[in-house]
């Protein structure tokens, strides 16, 4: 039975591993010319660690955790002069001491290396059309390649091409949470060794995270949704600098200069995806394509890994009854997704306060004097 997986990030790679293990013929198509390895370190939590153990990769994940995994402070907030004013203990941002924080590129490599040699990867290509005939799914790629598959799974993220082709326009399902975020690599040593330091102004956040092997600038701005080309770096920079302009506190000017100079920037809306169903006919969705919780939940990676395990297991148990298999997968995952999506707006308000009063209330709650 042949399955096409769209997207070679955590959800897609995890699903490819399990489908191959269960004997499916798997093809993975990825828009990028190679595996996408950019992004900040990510958390693996709870049952996702059990899934990793079943995949035989938990030890590798543990061995490659970032050097700051398990640090006491999630971040230290500073004033405009860089003086510490508040500290967020790590326990407020994690589920348990067993959580593992790992660089995204390391997890991607571990997942990819675990996949059997029989899985075909097609890079620098993307799905152009998807037609579910009822008996097969006919797919045409942008390169001109076409093929038929028994099933297609969209693991292609919050801006899913598969979702748009089968379920309809993105605006029907994606909910913008009035915030944009950006990540940019910074020179090693430009942060405080082993620490996260954050400066907040009403509706804006500037943060530098030092992970030892890598230093990342993390910025956020509160605003209603704006129009821009999410595949055009210059347009992303234009919007981001416009949202963050006018702030000179702490190292905000250094971060803005880093945005202007970089040729690799992550910039996107903080959004959630809410759908009445994650499958239609022979096509299903997984991970952020189906149920993005947003980066403020900290659970997207775990949901992707757990969801891939459930989807492949159910499909393998009833390969000729995909409707029932997809339904059971969704039934397993719905409660987890609901938990991950709850409270995200509160987390956003906490990390990127919109008003001066919210900002002061947060800083007072976690004031440096109170933390010691």
TrEMBL record:
SUPFAM superfamilies: FAD/NAD(P)-binding domain. Pfam families: FAD_binding_3. One of its GO terms (molecular function) is FAD binding. Residues 2-337 form the FAD-binding domain. InterPro entries: FAD-bd, FAD/NAD-bd_sf, FAD_aromatic-hydroxylase. This is 2-polyprenyl-6-methoxyphenol hydroxylase-like FAD-dependent oxidoreductase.
